[in-house]
Amino acid sequence: MNRLEGNVALITGGGRGIGAAVAVRLAEEGADVVLTYENSADRAAGVVEHIKAGGRRAVALRADSANPAALTAAVDEAAALFGRLDILVNNAGVFPVGPLEEVELAELDRTLAVNVRAPFLASQAAVRHMGRGGRIISIGSNIAQRAVFPEMALYSMSKSALTGMTKGLARELGPRGITVNLVHPGPTNTDANPSTGPHAQAIAGLTAVGRYAEPHEIAATIAHLASPDAQYTTGTSLHVDGGFTA
């Protein structure tokens, strides 16, 4: 399919995991892709080469999402490189886990900076380049909807904030033809939460389907939301969690 032919997409944190799968899927559907990364330069370069081998343009930009200047500069550079920006996927995130009493202020600040402030600032910068048909898609978490594990209050709080942002931006940007949506993945087989991890069997058992997702399964929903087929879908949260929140 070439539903995204002629579009330019920016994926934050697109060097690995769900972000890399999204970058590849959007390219397969016709988009040229810019992805940001913080530390995984080699893996980001591998994603870029994979996309180029498929005939699409791709660039990786180093940008720490906790750095507002670097993040907004990456958004502007993405638009400048390919002459437009149609799709923003707010994927970059941090995953803090620990007892409430041990959460330090620095960890609190960085979590909110990456998981909350960065999606807002990236969206703010992106809409300056978007016309009608623009798409903003953020990646939340099943933990924001069902906090079944202890020591994850900070992460849950940070991802819950994206619901309010999504609804507010959808209302504001709807008249401009820009849709804004949120995807809550369930347990997904990534480096941060591998399906072979020590607690994976228990985590998978909390889903209705009894297994982890693969990153490409999350990417498929994001590709739909990025496409013209989803032009009447905005302000909503979609759970791609195998029934974790059922």
TrEMBL record:
<keyword id="KW-0560">Oxidoreductase</keyword>
<dbReference type="InterPro" id="IPR020904">
    <property type="entry name" value="Sc_DH/Rdtase_CS"/>
</dbReference>
<dbReference type="InterPro" id="IPR036291">
    <property type="entry name" value="NAD(P)-bd_dom_sf"/>
</dbReference>
<comment type="similarity">
    <text>Belongs to the short-chain dehydrogenases/reductases (SDR) family.</text>
</comment>
<dbReference type="Pfam" id="PF13561">
    <property type="entry name" value="adh_short_C2"/>
</dbReference>
<dbReference type="InterPro" id="IPR002347">
    <property type="entry name" value="SDR_fam"/>
</dbReference>
<protein>
    <submittedName>
        <fullName>3-oxoacyl-ACP reductase FabG</fullName>
    </submittedName>
</protein>
